[in-house]
Design brief:
single chain; about 425 residues; Conserved hypothetical protein from pyrococcus furiosus pfu- 392566-001, domain 2; 2 domains; six-stranded antiparallel β-sheet; 15 helices; about 35% helix
């Protein structure tokens, strides 16, 4: 079962740090050097100094040791303070994409860790060893979950979030605006009856990891190491849990952005040559040239609402086409080890059939990934790729079906926007002194 508990979170004392907007940060995996520097400059207490510490030549110790020292100093001086009572934390994000405003609401709690395939928590992405080693070193150094994992649960009637909201009692939220203009709000739910109700409602529900797979697996590794060392105090030891944001799959603000591919490795590829290569498996339709052609191709994909239509822009001649797969036969033949749900994904069709099969004689492709049409158009205009590929976004039913079968989706299949902030509330993995 999914075991969800309230906990005593550690949060910034705003009387000492000022605006919360100045001390929060995105998760480590979307922070480049320029943003890291910007966050360092925003405040001496920005959580970037814990989440993604800079390599500082000449400073004693490695970056994990420096993060640990910084955290201890902040706790000692009351910059960070543990809440007096266990709480669930309602977390709301209001954001804009392609001119439309959305609001996504969920709640943060401690979720009991369990190995994938042995309970009710399911992954949908593969993980890499490097990020897990990095996060494990940080867990050992700090003893904290600094950023939440993003989990989804089925709740067609929004029963769970309504029960959580019943415990708010019209309290004023804590507010932070991030570097992308996303407004983040946090409320504490300290009512024990509400917490018990939520634990009961969540007990029978599966949870699907939307974002934070590396951190989840790192949490398992950290727990197992502490258990092997005899350092766990019992079933409710904090290391048995991870910090997780839980959002109902029916939340109207839950948005999965498409992840378009900007492909290099096909120099000089034209729309006519592309059409010739795709023709055996796809019905190819011309959508025009330049920005108008790109937008027409994307409109056709959105209107179709299916996974079997892809858009392609050939940079050499500026043309755009859409291609609809004629049948499942080729994917069944090329990826028999995968489920029909996996084989039907647009991203699977693009990589398995188009890039790795039909276009393979033309070269060895490499991909960059973007999410907005403006980013695609910018790259095409700058001739930063040879082939722009528009991919329909996976939907929640695809995530649920594939993850439930203990199968992972292809890399870069989903992008849940916006990212959850680091610094709204932290989760101790060891009991704090005092």
């Amino acid at each position: 079962m999914a075991d969800v508990l309230a906990f005593r979170g550690v949060r910034y004392d705003l009387a000492k740090v000022g605006a919360l907007s100045d001390v929060i940060a995105p998760p480590y995996d979307v922070i480049d050097r320029a943003l890291q520097d910007r966050l360092y400059s925003a405040s001496d207490h920005n959580v970037i100094r814990l989440e993604l510490t800079r390599d500082e030549p000449g400073e004693a110790g490695n970056k994990y040791e420096r993060a640990s020292k910084t955290l201890r100093d902040w706790l000692r001086h009351g910059i960070l303070r543990e809440d007096d009572h266990a709480a669930l934390y309602v977390y709301e994000q209001t954001y804009e994409v392609e001119g439309a405003k959305h609001t996504r609401r969920g709640f943060l709690g401690r979720v009991r860790l369990e190995p994938f395939g042995q309970g009710k928590i399911y992954p949908h992405e593969q993980t890499l060893s490097g990020p897990k080693a990095d996060r494990l070193a940080l867990y050992h150094a700090t003893g904290f979950n600094l950023s939440p994992i993003f989990g989804l649960y089925p709740d067609p009637d929004n029963q769970v979030i309504r029960a959580v909201e019943a415990g708010l009692r019209d309290r004023t939220p804590i507010v932070a605006t991030d570097h992308l203009g996303v407004e983040n709000k946090l409320w504490l739910v300290e009512d024990q009856q509400t917490q018990a109700t939520i634990r009961g409602l969540m007990a029978s529900k599966p949870v699907f990891i939307a974002d934070g797979h590396h951190r989840y697996e790192t949490g398992l590794k950290y727990r197992d190491e502490r258990a092997a060392a005899g350092e766990l105090s019992g079933d409710d030891d904090p290391a048995n849990f991870c910090l997780m944001m839980l959002v109902g799959m029916s939340d109207p603000g839950l948005l999965i952005l498409p992840t378009h591919r900007l492909v290099s490795g096909f120099p000089g590829l034209t729309a006519e040559a592309l059409r010739e290569k795709l023709a055996p498996e796809f019905e190819v339709t011309d959508k025009g040239q330049g920005e108008a052609g790109c937008r027409a191709a994307w409109e056709a994909i959105e209107e179709a609402g299916d996974q079997d239509m892809l858009g392609f822009g050939t940079v050499a001649d500026g043309r755009w086409v859409v291609a609809r797969l004629r049948s499942d036969e080729a994917m069944d033949r090329l990826a028999p080890e995968h489920s029909p749900d996996w084989r039907s994904l647009g991203v699977s069709i693009l990589h398995v059939l188009v890039l790795d099969s039909l276009l393979k004689p033309l070269g060895s492709p490499s991909c960059r990934y973007v999410h907005l049409l403006g980013e695609v158009l910018e790259s095409v205009s700058a001739r930063g790729c040879d082939l722009a590929c528009l991919v329909p976004p996976a939907k929640m039913e695809h995530v649920e079906a594939i993850a439930s079968g203990l199968e992972t989706m292809p890399p870069k299949s989903t992008y849940f926007y916006p990212k959850l902030l680091t610094g709204m509330v932290l989760n101790p993995l060891r009991r704090l002194e005092g």
